[in-house]
Amino acid sequence: MTMRTLTPTRFRSESYNPFRNRTDFEAGKVQELDGAGIWYHDTGGPGEVVVLLGGFTAGHFVFDFVREHMEDHRLITWEPRGLGPSFRPDDEKPHYSVDLWADDLRLLLSGIGVEKAHLWADGFGGFIALRFAAEHPEMVHSVITSTEVSATLQDRSKNWNIYSAIVNNLGTTGRGARLLAKWMDFETLPWFVSWESQNITDVLHLETVRATVGYGLLDADVRQDLNRIKAPTLLLLGDESPQAAMRQTGVHELHIGVENLEIEVIEGAHPSYGVVTHPLEFAQAARDFFRKHMEIV
């Protein structure tokens, strides 16, 4: 395991503008996949393809902070089915699953001509990345994830009852978005609530949340995929407490499952929003890892 002790990025003042590098939906495109339009953004950069898979609150916006440090790569971000401007089923009880999202990713990359890519996942995007790497090894150079692999390892139902209550009573815009952002309990960045509440407003939809609330941390389970992942995999973590301690079981699960695993810890970085609190350090770790494995076939 590697521990980096780099100087933390200093942008924690109230005057910092977290929207300065925001990749709005208007900058991307919608790719039709068997009748389901999936939104994506492609920088068209000169280097190897890196697919950035965000979580289900900040969405692709969480990676806006690292973009300026990754300009030598071609960066592709997306919003999965059900989120942002991507296709949303009009069923009364729409069906979503890791399998469905991973297959959407396969169709998207194939549709835009990407044969092979590095995957960098944050939050629930890690479940999709791991399932994708297990199912489609020929399309994956390497994988970076920061997610514990199964929430069935811990009882978090109370958290999701609160989350669901906020959404059902107040929705995912306005006051509902602000309360969800405050619920994240992120006090170190004075602008976090305004930034995250805008992400929630843009990414989340009431029907999707009702269909998926708690899914990633209560039901989704990709542990059976781990021993099928042959691509080099980096577990990239922040060590700031208290959430960091909750990840250790997940770290152990990944360690005993993935054949070619490395672990790197960014000192002082937030465990859930490390790419936000320490974008330079996370980007440097990612670039080093991708460079080491850029010739993997």
Characterize this entry briefly.
Helix content is 35%, strand content 16%. With 297 residues, the chain is an alpha/beta fold.
Please specify the SSE layout and strand pairing.
Elements: E1 2-4, E2 29-33, E3 36-42, E4 49-53, E5 74-79, H1 98-111, E6 117-121, H2 125-135, E7 140-145, H3 157-170, H4 174-183, H5 192-203, H6 206-212, H7 215-219, E8 233-238, H8 243-246, H9 248-257, E9 261-266, H10 274-277, H11 279-292
Parallel strand pairs: 1-9, 4-5, 4-6, 6-7, 7-8, 8-9
Antiparallel strand pairs: 2-3, 3-5
Q: Please write the string of helix (H) and strand (E) elements.
A: EEEEEHEHEHHHHHEHHEHH
Query: How would the global form be characterised?
Result: globular
Mean pLDDT: 86
Question: How far from one another are the termini?
Answer: 24 Å
- Helix content class: 25-40%
pLDDT < 50 stretches: 5-9
CATH level-3 fold name: Rossmann fold
Side-by-side strand order of the widest sheet: 1-9-8-7-6-4-5-3-2
Task: Give a verbal description of the structure.
Helices cover 35% and strands 16% of the residues. The chain is an alpha/beta fold and 297 residues long. The protein has a single domain, classed as Rossmann fold. The protein is globular, with a radius of gyration of 18 Å.
List the defining traits of the structure above.
globular; alpha/beta; nine-stranded mixed beta sheet; Rossmann fold; single chain; 297 residues; 11 helices
